[in-house]
Write a structure and sequence with these properties.
With about 270 residues, the chain is of the alpha/beta class. The chain contains ten helices and ten strands.
C-alpha cells in the first residue's frame, strides 16, 4: 500500500458542507475521495453544476474515485426495480463526469437465500453494467451489505456469474472480520475480482459479537492484522485504492479537519513509503 492510493470515504467525517469536507481531506494529506453520494447530490441540488464540483475538486487537488448510496434491486419487479436501476445509472453517470471510479453497491435478496439466487445477482449486475458501457465506472458488490451476499466467497460467486470486466467486489476488513470469510479465501483466483477496498480496523471482540459498522476503529488500533491482509491482497495482484470508511461516533464528534487528519495518519503508518 502506497500513499498515492490512500483515499477517504466522505462518510468518515461530519461537516457542514462539501467545501469543508474537501478542505479537510486535502489538509490531512489525502489526494483521493470517495463520496457518500447523498452529500454530493445535496450540494448539487443547491443550484450548482457538475462542472462546479470538478472545479472544487481541482482546487483542492483531489481526485474522485467513486461513491456509494444504495443496494441494487435484483428480486423486485416493475417500476420499483427500474427506479432502483435508474438511481444507480444516475450515480454512475455522476461518478463518470467527475473522472470515473467505482460504484459500490449492496443487494436485496429473495425470501429463501440460495446459490441459485447468487447467480441472479450476478446476472443482474451484468445487465446493469451493460447499460453503463459508455461510462468509466466499475460496479463492486459489498459483501455483508446484503441479506444474501454474506461473505467474500459469496461475492466471488456473484462476480463469476456476472462474468463482466466492469463487475467485481468491494473488500472491507470490517466485513471480512465479522463474516465466515477466511485468509485462505484470498488467493490468485479470487483477489483479481476485487475492484476496490474500504479500509478500517475492528475492536478486539469475537467477530460474531461485533457490529461491522459501530465497532470500527482507526487502522492499527484494533484486532485485524492489517499488514498481513494488505500483503495477501497485493501479493495476488491488487493495485487499487484503499479508502478509509469509518462509522465511528468519536470521529464524528470532531471537526472534519481533525477527523481527516487522524484517518490519514493511521493509514500512512501502514504504507510502504
Amino acid at each position: 500500500m502506497d500513499r498515492a492510493h490512500l483515499a477517504i470515504n466522505s462518510v468518515s467525517s461530519r461537516q457542514s458542507s462539501l467545501e469543508e469536507a474537501l478542505e479537510a481531506y486535502e489538509s490531512a494529506g489525502f489526494r483521493n475521495v470517495e463520496f457518500q453520494m447523498g452529500l454530493l447530490k445535496k450540494w448539487l441540488a443547491d443550484g450548482r453544476s457538475v462542472d462546479d464540483a470538478r472545479q472544487l475538486l481541482a482546487a483542492r487537488r483531489l481526485h474522485c474515485i467513486g461513491g456509494f448510496e444504495a443496494g441494487i434491486d435484483c428480486f423486485s419487479v416493475g417500476e420499483k426495480h427500474e427506479a432502483n436501476h435508474r438511481l444507480h445509472l444516475e450515480n454512475a453517470r455522476l461518478i463518470h463526469e467527475l473522472g470515473g471510479g467505482t460504484l459500490v453497491v449492496g443487494t436485496d435478496g429473495p425470501e429463501r437465500p440460495s446459490l441459485e439466487a447468487l447467480d441472479i445477482v450476478g446476472q443482474t449486475m451484468r445487465g446493469l453494467a451493460e447499460r453503463m458501457t459508455d461510462l468509466n465506472v466499475d460496479l463492486a458488490v459489498e459483501f455483508n451489505w446484503s441479506p444474501l451476499v454474506k461473505s467474500f466467497k459469496s461475492a466471488v460467486v456473484v462476480s463469476e456469474a456476472a462474468d463482466h470486466p466492469r463487475v467485481g467486489i468491494l473488500f472491507d476488513p470490517a466485513h471480512y472480520y465479522t463474516t465466515v470469510s477466511k485468509p485462505e479465501h484470498l488467493n490468485e483466483r479470487t483477489v483479481p475480482w476485487i475492484k476496490h477496498v474500504h479500509f478500517d480496523d475492528m475492536r478486539d471482540k469475537p467477530g460474531e459479537y461485533s457490529n461491522c459498522n459501530s465497532d470500527r476503529v482507526l487502522p492499527g488500533e484494533g484486532a485485524i492484522d492489517l499488514p498481513d491482509l494488505i500483503g495477501r491482497l497485493e501479493r495476488h495482484g491488487y493495485r487499487g485504492y484503499y479508502s478509509i470508511e469509518m462509522f465511528n461516533e468519536d470521529l464524528w464528534k470532531l471537526p472534519a479537519a481533525e477527523a481527516a487528519r487522524l484517518c490519514y495518519e493511521s493509514m500512512a503508518r501502514l504504507t510502504a513509503d
